[in-house]
């Protein structure tokens, strides 16, 4: 599902215009992004939690030249942990796609 398809579905379900739905989706994404950028987390009970995770620097291998070692720098990355209700809904969904 693309962002536009999501906006269309949200507008239909909520009974609002596509413009209002697009603004809501943009505000939602910006709020999560700003919270994660500031080191916080966003949790929706039953759905899941958006957070950040620190990855330490590590050694890797250049895929074009497997004998060459490269250093992968430390980084802070976004992470999503699915909640129990979301896991159960997906597990029992059955349609797979």
What's the gist of this structure?
This protein has 97 residues and is α+β, with helices and mostly antiparallel strands. Helix content is 41%, strand content 33%.
Secondary structure topology:
Layout: H1 3-14, H2 18-37, E1 42-44, E2 48-55, E3 58-62, E4 65-72, E5 75-82, H3 84-91
Antiparallel strand pairs: 1-2, 2-5, 3-4
Helix pairs in contact: 1-2
Detailed description of the structure:
By secondary structure, the protein is α+β, with helices and mostly antiparallel strands. The chain has three helices and five strands; from the N terminus they run H-H-E-E-E-E-E-H. The protein has helices at residues 3-14, 18-37, 84-91, and strands spanning 42-44, 48-55, 58-62, 65-72, 75-82. The strands form two sheets. It has a three-stranded antiparallel β-sheet with strand order 1-2-5. Strand 3 (58-62) and strand 4 form a beta hairpin. Helix 1 (3-14) packs across helix 2 (18-37). The N and C termini lie close together (11 Å). The model has no long low-confidence stretch (mean pLDDT 94).
**Which descriptor suits the 3D outline?**
elongated
Strand order of the largest sheet: 1-2-5
Give the radius of gyration. Answer: 19 Å
Helix content: 40-55%
Runs in which pLDDT lies below 50 for 5 or more consecutive residues are none
Overall residue-averaged pLDDT value: 94
> Which structural class should the secondary elements be placed in?
alpha+beta
Largest sheet: 3 strands, antiparallel
Number of extended strands: 5
The ordered string of helix (H) and strand (E) elements is: HHEEEEEH
Cα end-to-end separation? 11 Å
Proportion of strand residues: 25-35%
Number of helix segments? Answer: 3
């Amino acid at each position: 599902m693309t962002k536009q398809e999501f906006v269309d579905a949200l507008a239909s379900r909520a009974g609002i215009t596509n413009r209002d739905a697009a603004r809501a989706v943009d505000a939602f994404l910006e709020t999560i992004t700003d919270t994660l950028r500031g080191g916080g987390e966003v949790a929706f009970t039953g759905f899941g939690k958006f957070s950040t995770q620190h990855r330490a620097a590590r050694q890797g291998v250049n895929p074009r030249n497997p004998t060459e070692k490269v250093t992968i720098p430390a980084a802070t990355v976004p992470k999503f942990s699915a909640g129990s209700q979301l896991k159960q809904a997906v597990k029992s969904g059955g349609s797979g796609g």
